[in-house]
């Protein structure tokens, strides 16, 4: 298998985002941001799922072991995880932590692609070195660079579009393959769509973890599962949580109609309460 290089991509305003700004305000906030980035790197190859692998087994990390992995103290790790869960930077299911939306922060490149990129860079540098003295290099190669950049952007957009289509088909196929009623399938599709709206798209692995959480909360009660999923849709929850009393009495059809009306008004997913 060809070697791939993987890295974390941070938005320009990452450290100024409301979440990072709030974390930084806390005592030892800078250390907690460091811990968050280390957790992202730790789970970069697992769709943001932070779990310990021992042979064929997967199990949760203990706080001391996780602290050891990211080079911090158990006390700092415990406080950091508590803060992250409070503002949605980290989710926890069955003791396993996950970084939602990490897939959108990951960049990768194959070893061969890196070699080609370096070759093109050297070639361009050699061409510039052969120019007559005094020739404005930027003007001379502007057309070629523009073409290269245009092609690169076009290719990248095709790659991103294809990845999105594959992910969309994958999750849709997962929902369709479930042995459950149509109401629960519709609710799960609503949840997947909501996660995209809040820019926290669901990965296949996170989706399966969500199904396990539903089973843990509701057993085989499909009506309750549907209510739990729609509760998450209404409140922009990234995971599934015990059903609130106010949601337990609201018919599923009424909740879905509220969502449809909110979407038509463009008021966001929380507009259903108005």
Primary descriptors:
disordered C terminus, single chain, globular, 274 residues, Arc Repressor Mutant, subunit A, two-stranded antiparallel sheet, mainly alpha, 7 strands, 3-stranded antiparallel beta sheet
Could you outline the blueprint of secondary structure elements for this entry?
Elements: E1 4-8, H1 18-25, H2 29-42, E2 49-50, E3 52-54, E4 57-59, H3 63-69, H4 74-86, E5 91-93, E6 96-98, E7 106-110, H5 111-129, H6 137-140, H7 142-177, H8 182-197, H9 204-218, H10 222-235, H11 245-248, H12 252-265
Antiparallel strand pairs: 1-7, 2-6, 3-4, 5-6
Helix pairs in contact: 1-2, 2-4, 3-4, 7-8, 8-10, 9-10, 10-12
CATH superfamily of the domain at 4-104: Winged helix-like DNA-binding domain superfamily/Winged helix DNA-binding domain
Output the radius of gyration. 23 Å
Give the termini separation. Answer: 54 Å
Helix content class: 55-70%
What best-fitting shape do the alpha-carbon axes yield? globular
Secondary structure tally: strands = 7
Low-confidence stretches: 138-160, 266-274
**Mean pLDDT over all positions:** 75
Instruction: State the CATH architecture of the domain at 4-104.
Output: Orthogonal Bundle
- The CATH C-level class name of the domain at 4-104: Mainly Alpha
Give the ordered list of helices and strands.
EHHEEEHHEEEHHHHHHHH
Strand order of the largest sheet: 2-6-5
Class computed from helices, strands and strand pairing: mainly alpha
Say what the CATH topology of the domain at 4-104 is: Arc Repressor Mutant, subunit A
How much of the sequence lies in strands comes to 5-15%
Largest sheet: 3 strands, antiparallel
Give me the number of helical elements. Answer: 12
